[in-house]
């Protein structure tokens, strides 16, 4: 099951800027268009927790 396109339209970065997210279906991630944080999608559920987000260039989960 993939993420619903309507859900993707309303999801935003949980940081104060609330920028839109881009979805990478193959990598199962959402990436903030402003700060670049990478959020995992686990079992088709976006994990939008700043503490678990990766920064660009970071290998593992923060």
Description:
The protein has one helix and four strands. The chain has one helix spanning 5-10; strands spanning 21-24, 29-32, 38-42, 45-46. Strand 2 (29-32) and strand 3 form a beta hairpin. The termini are far apart. The model has no long low-confidence stretch (mean pLDDT 92).
Please identify the structural class as seen in this structure. Answer: mainly beta
Succession of helices and strands: HEEEE
Strand order of the largest sheet: 1-2-3-4
Helix content: under 10%
Alpha-carbon distance between the two ends: 26 Å
Task: Tell me about the largest β-sheet.
Answer: 4 strands, antiparallel
Oligomeric organization of the protein chains? single chain
Radius of gyration: 11 Å
Give the integer mean of the pLDDT values.
92
Strand content: 15-25%
Shape: globular
Number of strands: 4
DSSP helix count? 1
Q: List low-pLDDT spans.
A: none
List its traits.
62 residues; 4 strands; mainly beta; 1 helix; 4-stranded antiparallel β-sheet; globular; 10% helix
Brief summary:
By secondary structure, this protein is mainly beta. It is built from 1 helix and 4 strands.
């Amino acid at each position: 099951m993939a993420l619903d396109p309507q859900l993707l339209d309303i999801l935003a970065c949980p940081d104060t800027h609330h920028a839109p997210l881009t979805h990478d279906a193959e990598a199962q991630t959402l990436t903030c268009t402003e700060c670049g944080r990478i959020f995992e999608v686990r079992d088709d559920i976006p994990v939008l927790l700043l503490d678990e987000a990766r920064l660009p260039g970071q290998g593992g989960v923060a």
